[in-house]
Give the backbone structure.
Amino acid sequence: MTDFEDQLRRALERKEPSADFAARVMARATQKKRPLAWVQWQSWAAAGIAASLCLGALGLEVEHRHTVELRQGQAARAQLIQAMEITSKKLHQIHKRVQGTL
Amino acid sequence: MRNRRIIFLLGLAQAVVCGQSVKLDALDKLADKASETVTVSLDANLLKMASRFLSKDDPDQAQIQKLVAGLRGVYVRNFEFDKPGQYQASDLDPIRNQLKDPKWKKIVQVRGRDHADVLLRQEDEHTISGLAVIVAEPTELTVVYIDGPIDVDGLSKLAGNFGIPEDIGTKVEKEKEKKAK
């Protein structure tokens, strides 16, 4: 047997694993993976963006309601002033007619 | 079903407490014949909203704000026609029928080329709870209904600013005195 063959035989010969090998493999397999730093950062960023979007949407809704209320209020005010003008004009007209007959 | 009954009874109770409101909707059909139409329908909520937008710095608007504070509604229908005969006197019947209630007192009646009526609704001797004005001219028809306790003094204060006759309050007082006698 040549020296090379001897080296090869020794390199390929079956070796038994250590006694705690199976336990170590199982322990490693069941161990929770620690989240990577960038994954944590991404979650926070996503939550931040979602919160900003919610706040933005809420702000837009509040602004929209305010605009609608403003428009309705101004329209109602214009109607009220117009109603008062018509009422006063007609009452004045009647008053003049009544005065004219006295 | 029970809820409906309760709502109906509440509505009925409110109608009794607040007095029957006058509906002007029957006139809306005239809008098709009119060359110009003004429709104002402001209920209590809209009046409150409108009132918030009135300027306190403007004396007229401040006065209106005071005047409408306790009102339940302001309703106006004004139609202008291109020529006479576009509406019939009977078009006003649905309105006049609603004003036949004994609580309504006619304080002014004008008959001639134009017809005009001013009526006040009195809940009791001291409370005026409504004003109705009907003015029928050949080419113009106006009906105003103000629902709610009208401050006659306030109405007098508005006089001059909007052309409301200053003695309209006095007329009401005279009417009250007549009744008292």
About this structure: The helical segments of chain B are 2-18, 44-52, 59-68, 93-98, 152-158, 168-180. The mean pLDDT of chain B is 80. Residues 23-180 of chain B form one domain. The longest strand of chain B covers residues 128-137.
